[in-house]
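On clarity, I found the account of how folds are encoded harder to follow than it need be. For illustration, here is how one protein appears when written out as sequence plus structure tokens.
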Amino acid sequence: MGNEVLESVRPLLPAIAERAHETDESRRIPERTIRELVEAGVFRMLQPRRYGGLESDAVEFYEVVRAISAVCGSTGWVASVLGVHPWQLALFTEQAQDEVWGEDRGTLVSSAYAPVGRLTPVDGGYRLSGRWGFSSGCEHARWALLGALVVGSQGRPVDFLTVLVPRSDYRIEDVWDVVGLRGTASNDILVESAYVPAHRVIRNYEQAQLKGPGQKVNPGPLYRLPFAAVFTSAVTAPVVGAVAGGYDSYTSAMQERVRLSLGGGRFAEDPFAQAAIARASSEIDATILQMDHNLRELSALAAGRREIPMELRLRTRRDQVRGTERAVAAIDLLFKTAGGNSLRRGNPIERAWRDAHAGSVHVANDVERALVMYGRGVFGLTVEDNLV
């Protein structure tokens, strides 16, 4: 059985590509595009079946993300980030899931995971205050997942939680004016002393142990995967997709180009250009093969209810950050060899170059940090990180 959502998305791609410039300039995804992605089932792929979701294979979800990102990096990024949140929400309590999806199973959730919020314990829950940046696609969502620290009586952090907050409890401040991924509208979220009941929080430690109260009602193997594998893949897949799209644009644009200097001749006959294409395509292919291989291995272990070894979790993170690094190296090579024409704003190669670099600075794409974790694991040293 093929990827049915991908088949539904493919006819949408030409129109999404046509809106890419508008998306970039307006700094947001058009509502028409969001509606089309909703109707195609993109945001339901990782949503539990009991709430109308598809519980798709994770590899299929990222395949869809890459396809969208190939024609518009910003749209692919928002599709990936908003599309991955139903997976995490499935780990929350049944009551929390009912509140979000009980009346409208198409409700979308954004996020800002940095632990910049302050949680003060009160009867039945917490009081939350804080300001979070980089909540991609938040204007399309009615709930938000926010990172926060529980503050003890001595004023010191005692726990790290992810909290679920309804749109009525926060406001969005439009601050997004950046170089790449301009259309993601990754704006700030502000909360001032909102009450968060205990059933709408999940401990990050518990999540790192591959546990969550929602597994009682969502027992499928999809919800026994590591958060780090699922979430970090969601910020690498759009980068890889955007670069793959840039590669396609490059090969198409250069096919008939004639050099006006350096002896002239067809660009396609230049051995240096041919070598650049070979290197770039190899980096893209290697990334996809490694990431898909790791996700399939994780999924097979989860389906068999077998323990997922730390070695595999670390390898998954290693290959995920190296995937981002490889993709950026590929688009840098193509951008450089495309010549002066790649400098013109709005052309697909230039936009892919900006979007890939913008996505690469996400904390989940911190290459050295992830590689150090892998190295510590190989040497038998303790690895303590929520993103593994």
User: Anything to note?
Assistant: Residues 225-378 form a domain with the Butyryl-CoA Dehydrogenase, subunit A; domain 3 fold (CATH 1.20.140.10). The chain has a mean pLDDT of 95. The first strand starts at residue 109 and ends at 122. The radius of gyration is 21 Å.
